[in-house]
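FORM 12-B: Structure-to-Sequence Request
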């Protein structure tokens, strides 16, 4: 049983991963403080209100700005746990510093400094990423034992190369620096691989949905690349966060990833139920062809060399042992996600 006597705060509550965290907390009878940019935007909050209406828990909204000092003071007051999930996930931005690094780094700093000022906070759970551990699939090959672990930090991303991975790395490093500078609250990080699965409402802007949309609209119809990745279901990620928040025996970083796979293998799981209605890929794209056309489709050939047909491996044993995660089959995740996207009108039938 969770301790439901004190409220908890979830940043980015309207987001993809955060929505499932909020859902689990409300179902457990928690009071959730949700700092949002506009607490009066009923359309954007509709799905959260619907869940709260059918749950024993309660949700309260507070106005906050990720980049504004002290913005989370009201929302955090009285909370025992802070879930910091708010951070952009996009690989296509015009200004990496402004669009990725600042929100990730400054937002993390603002939330954790505020935790220093709120005496009720005892634990912060940070949504980090496997991107804070690696940049390219070749990094997993070059890792000790050919596998990512929680002991590894990303050293290959930069503001100029894979800035999303760089933003997640510097944000998590900042979090650990701030956590170690005090001794009242402790920090736990969840480091998921590519998060897939249905949302609880709306049309998330996460890169995860962009990838699946490209599959459903036929962008991969001539072949999908075998880009080595890890994949995890969003529902497992939410469970990991809640377990990390309330189990005193949980500590440190946690790779949360259910499957070592690649882009083609992921979208291939959709072929049996949806292949006759949607232009899904039937074959993988040869590495040499991807390398050849890379500049024409906005990709760097160096990135192709480091990721295409390169296996991806991560050690998820800590998430199983400490967090009790049981990973569902990949096809359950992808098919649930695709069905949700159909219902939300992401693409038309082919």
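FORM 12-B RESPONSE
SEQUENCE OUT:
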């Amino acid at each position: 049983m969770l301790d439901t006597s004190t409220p908890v705060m979830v940043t980015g509550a309207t987001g993809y991963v955060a929505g499932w965290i909020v859902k689990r907390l409300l179902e457990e009878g928690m009071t959730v403080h949700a700092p949002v940019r506009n607490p009066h935007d009923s359309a954007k909050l509709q799905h959260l209100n619907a869940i709260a209406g059918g749950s024993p828990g309660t949700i309260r909204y507070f106005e906050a700005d990720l980049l504004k000092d002290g913005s989370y003071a009201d929302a955090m007051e009285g909370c025992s746990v802070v879930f910091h999930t708010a951070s952009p996930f996009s690989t296509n931005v015009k200004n990496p510093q402004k669009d990725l690094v600042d929100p990730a780094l400054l937002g993390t700093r603002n939330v954790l400094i505020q935790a220093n000022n709120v005496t009720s906070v005892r634990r912060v759970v940070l949504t980090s990423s496997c991107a804070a551990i690696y940049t390219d699939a070749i990094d997993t090959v070059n890792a000790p034992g050919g596998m990512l672990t929680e002991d590894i930090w990303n050293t290959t991303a930069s503001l100029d190369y894979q800035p999303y991975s760089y933003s997640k790395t510097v944000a998590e490093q900042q979090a650990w620096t701030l956590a170690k500078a005090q001794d009242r609250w402790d920090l736990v990080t969840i480091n998921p691989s590519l998060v897939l699965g249905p949302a609880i409402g709306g049309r998330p802007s996460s890169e995860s949905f962009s990838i699946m949309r490209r599959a459903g609209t036929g962008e991969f119809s001539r072949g999908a690349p075998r880009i080595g990745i890890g994949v995890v279901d969003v529902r497992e990620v939410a469970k990991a966060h809640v377990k990390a928040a309330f189990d005193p025996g949980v500590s440190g970083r946690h790779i949360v990833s259910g499957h070592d796979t690649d882009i083609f293998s992921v979208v291939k799981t959709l072929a049996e139920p949806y292949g006759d209605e949607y232009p899904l890929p039937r074959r993988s794209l040869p590495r040499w062809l991807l390398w050849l056309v890379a500049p024409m489709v906005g990709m760097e050939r160096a990135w192709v060399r480091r990721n295409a047909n390169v296996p991806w491996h991560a050690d998820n044993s800590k998430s199983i042992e400490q967090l009790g995660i049981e990973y569902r089959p990949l096809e359950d995740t992808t098919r649930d996600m695709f069905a949700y996207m159909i219902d939300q009108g992401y693409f038309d039938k082919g």
